[in-house]
Amino acid sequence: MASREEYLARLDLQTLRGLEIGPADRPWIPATVRGIRYADHLSTEDLRKGWAADSHYKAEDLCEISFVLDERPLRETLGEWVDLDVIAASHVVEHVPNLLNWLRELASALKPDGLLFLVAPNKRFEFDRLRRVTELADVLTTFLDKRTQPSLAAMLDCWLHFAKHDGNTTWWDEVDTRAMTVMHTIPYVYDQAKAAVERGGYTDVHVSVFTPYSFIRLIHDLTLLELMPLELIDIDAVGIEIFLMFRACPVNEDVPRRLKKLDEMEVRFPFNVEDYYSGLLLHGERLPDNVDELPGGSVRAELERVKAELERMKSSASWKVTAPLRSVRSRLPK
Amino acid sequence: MASREEYLSRLNLQTLRGLEFGPADRPWIPPTAPGIRYIDHLSTEELRKKYTGWSDYRAEDFCEIHFVNDGRPLTEILGNWVDLDVVVASHVIEHIPNLLKWLQELGSILKPGGLLFLAAPNKRFEFDRLRRVTELVDVLSDFLDDRKRPSPRSMMDYWVHYATLNGAPSWSEEVEPKALTLSFPLKTCFADAKEAVESPNYKDVHVSAFTPNSFVRILHGLTVLELLPFELVEVQAAGMEFLAMLKACEPTVDVPKRLDLLEKAEKGLPFHIDDYVSGLVLREERGSGEVNLDDAGARAELARVKEELDRTKSSASWRLTEPLRRLRRRL
Question: Is the residue at B287 inside a domain?
Answer without folding.
Answer: no
